[in-house]
Amino acid sequence: MGYPPQYGPPPRGETGRGLTVIVLMVAGLIIGTVIAVLTVLDPSAAQDSPPASASTSDAPGDARTEEAVRQAAQAAFDAYADGRSGDFWDLWSTRARSSITREEYVRLFQLCPQLVAGAAFTVADVYVTGDTALVSASRTGDPTPYDYDFVREDGSWRHVPPPEEQEEYRVKGVDRIVAERRTAGTCGTPAPITSSAPSAPASSAPSAPATSAPSDPATSAPSFTPPTG
Fold this sequence. Notes:
Layout: H1 12-41, H2 44-48, H3 52-57, H4 66-81, H5 85-90, H6 94-97, H7 102-111, E1 121-129, E2 132-139, E3 142-153, E4 156-160, H8 163-171, H9 174-184, H10 191-195, H11 208-211
Antiparallel strand pairs: 1-2, 2-3, 3-4
Helix pairs in contact: 7-9
């Protein structure tokens, strides 16, 4: 059987312990309040913690930098210099790719190859303005620098051919462009055309095909065009 509850004042020892706990609680509240006030009023606390925007704007992965444009431009120029016309087309802007299909652009350079293949490009200057950039580059064998436009789309920099070139792709077909460039002497000649003469028999040497050799546009070898064509 339990004992009935006790009434009246508690023992003296319990009263002393209760007062000690209350005093400690009050002291803790006062100390916490003082620390909070000092933290708010201390101006050095804001200086020790930099704003969040500083860490994002100076991030090494920022794509709006001259180095990012330089790398994208060099990749596009290397693809063109190596004769990888399809890969070069892949690095165009969205609007530029709509002017001609990838298959037709590859066929264009199969019928009208570069006069000088494999000549590397060297990027000289890069100027970035928001999501657009201007790249100045020259090619081996031609010290004259040319300017190329680039635009940032979907987080990457893409080459923008001149508007007149895009209009030419839209209005003219590949066959017409090839015919005009061959007439202007800006097309290289595929190797099988020049190598067919030695295989002809001796009796056919005076025949008509031999007289067509001087019309080979590759013999003129004018200065090559920049990778806008």
